[in-house]
Amino acid sequence: MTERVARRAARLLILDPDGSVFLQLHDDVEIGLHWAPPGGGLEDGEGELAAALRETREETGWTDVTVGPALCRWEHDYTRDGVPTRQSETYFLASGPRRDPEQEARDTYAEEGILAIRWWTPGALGESRASFWPPNLPALLASVRRQGPPAEAIELGYTPNTPVA
């Protein structure tokens, strides 16, 4: 078994007024192409929500999103900068207007490994065969649209990788 470095991360699932979610396309040697919301690793002494807000600001330039409750937590493996990593992530629901990230943020995308961005409508998200972080993201967001946010963050546990085809 591969020895993995532990890492904690947090992300914001930003929904526009019509229910579309903002996601970024990444590529990983272990899991391949996948869509994930803005976010990233916690710095020393930083809380999950503070990290999610900081990373979102760095990746989008947005400082005016409204943050709601934590939707879910999960753990997964991937390779970060050539290092096998086991990442524990918390996803927070958030809302904001539909817009493009600020140019200054987009200028860092190549360095950050962000290949593309997209606002996914609920219908497109539900019909897509793309890979998402977490893998059941379309179902989680559909549940939020039907029932509202959960009273407590949903614990998804560890999700093993599906080999890259």
From TrEMBL:
This is NUDIX domain-containing protein. The lineage of its organism: Bacteria, Bacillati, Actinomycetota, Actinomycetes, Catenulisporales. InterPro entries: NUDIX_hydrolase-like_dom_sf, NUDIX_hydrolase_CS, NUDIX_hydrolase_dom. Pfam families: NUDIX (PF00293). Residues 5-142 form the Nudix hydrolase domain. The keyword Ribonucleoprotein does not apply. Coiled coil: none annotated. It comes from Actinospica durhamensis. The keyword Hydrolase applies. Its cofactor is Mg(2+). GO terms for molecular function: hydrolase activity. Keywords: Hydrolase, Magnesium.
